[in-house]
Write a structure and sequence with these properties.
Helices cover 34% and strands 28% of the residues. The chain is α+β, with helices and mostly antiparallel strands and 112 residues long. It has one domain. Strands 1-3-5-4-6-2 form a 6-stranded mixed beta sheet. A hairpin with a 2-residue loop joins β4 and β5.
Length: 112
């Protein structure tokens, strides 16, 4: 699996205080490697997100609803594979729903 799509060490910043502690590879949301990893653990979500991207015509959209104003997040405590942090793109509304329903915190990840 290509885990080099995004590596936060020395290239990424975060609004979360503990991102640098993770020292794990991150897959850029909606990249081919991200879809390959997501398909293994959640094929329905991977298919749904792929369809959203096709309909909207951009991969810079929310992974859940397709809204074009979204950001990439690390889902703290979740991994696609050992040492590969789970990531997702979320708009403000879907981020709020995740935070109310899920126990894993989200850490904003921005990469150059």
């Amino acid at each position: 699996m290509d885990i080099a799509s995004v590596t936060h060490k020395n290239r990424c910043n975060s609004d979360g205080p503990h991102l640098k502690q993770h020292l794990k590879n991150l897959l850029k949301p909606h990249s081919p490697a991200w879809f390959a990893a997501l398909t293994k653990i959640s094929p329905v979500q991977a298919h749904y997100t792929g369809r959203l991207i096709e309909m909207v015509g951009s991969d810079e959209v929310c992974s859940i609803c397709g809204h074009d104003e979204s950001a990439a997040y690390l889902i703290e405590g979740r991994e696609y594979a050992p040492g590969v942090g789970a990531t997702i793109r979320l708009c403000c509304a879907c981020k709020g729903m995740h935070e109310r329903r899920a126990s894993e915190p989200l850490i904003l990840v921005t990469c150059a």
